[in-house]
């Protein structure tokens, strides 16, 4: 009896002829070119199923950790398929495919096949104009010929890093935001020094606690071995952010590329909104970067993941205004819970004070619209976040996104793509750094 049946649950079943028909149709299409195009080529699924490589990589990687002999089994399975006209593993009519009774290769392919069938449901329906917006030189497939393994390398490095640090995606997204909103998406935030020897962006207090640079460096080192002096650090950051978004539960979007790296980085240029900045000023800040108030509200949803230091919001608990220690917009129950996690600043010293952090959201590892639900309930940590729900220019959008999770997910991905176009360097501008922390 199937293990699930013992528990009184319905096991997952598949008719043998469904798998056979799918396999035959795919083989015929590949052999004749009919139905799939005139020939095989790299990037075939870039638009139809952009998550296919990530899904396969994740399943194989996870299983390889349990079985170090997996690569040999998969290679053997592939060669036996190619050298024999048709051979599919045997299963009885209407039988349950029980993973515990299958060889490792077929088991993995079964999992991958059914995961890939979900692509039509989770792929963001971006139009060609949204992705390949003419006017700034960026386009999808920019490195397909010059560095075809680029995206796989980025996926591998980020996936490995996330295994040891589940909160890394939040760090990568913040790194991308802080780069793009200061002079544009040009990797200037990564520089340790510049020809002018001025203090660089990373030395600005606004960039305190920035994480993820080591991951960008590792990706760059791998790419310099694969395709030297080809992929910019600015594009690496964009692709790594795409992976961070995907690992946090949203669709894996296509990345328009072609950015080049800046040779300048000045701490004095880092002027970013603070948690206490009035909402109208924040709206103007985004507007100057060609982002609408609606897109701003959508991008604020990045605060759905990660953590924040108590010092960014504890004044709302203990020192909000003269005669009013606590921010009245805070949910009282939520405020009491925060006070337990973040004692008054004058009661902590040294490392104890420095290490006090709180999850930004009730689902701190998943990008979702719970963030907007929390805003409506007065459960935002930072004052600027809470202001989204009360400002007349943004409140309606917050209410809409709080009840439309699918809509927010699509809008977030589109807004990330648009944000990645802010003041980019293309063509002969800037350079392609050999090391992301140093200009050439």
Describe what you observe in this structure:
It is a single chain. This protein folds into three domains: 97 residues, no CATH class; 142 residues, Peroxidase, domain 1 (Orthogonal Bundle), CATH 1.10.520; 141 residues, Peroxidase, domain 2 (Orthogonal Bundle). The chain has 20 helices and two strands. Helix 13 packs across helix 20, helix 17 crosses helix 19 and helix 18 packs across helix 19.
Which residues form runs of ≥5 with pLDDT under 50?
A: 1-22, 28-38, 85-103, 109-123
Strand pairing plus helix content: what structural class?
Answer: mainly alpha
Quickly give the CATH architecture of the largest domain.
Orthogonal Bundle
> What portion of residues is helical?
40-55%
Mean pLDDT: 82
Number of domains: 3
Beta-strand proportion: under 5%
| Termini separation | 65 Å
| SSE pattern | HHHHHHHHHHHHHEHHHEHHHH
Rg value: 25 Å
**Biggest beta-sheet profile:** 2 strands, antiparallel
The shape, in one word, is globular
Name of the CATH first level of the largest domain: Mainly Alpha
Number of helices: 20
Number of strands: 2
Q: Please list the strands of the largest sheet in the order they lie side by side.
A: 1-2
CATH topology of the largest domain: Peroxidase, domain 1
